[in-house]
Amino acid sequence: MMRALAVAVSLAGGACVPSEFSGNLMNAASPYVLNRAVKDLGCPSKQIQVFRGVGGRYVAKGCERSAAYQTSCQQLQCDVAPEGQRPAAWRDRPDPSSSDLQR
Question: Angle CA(89)–CA(94)–CA(97) in degrees, nearest 5?
Answer without folding.
Answer: 140
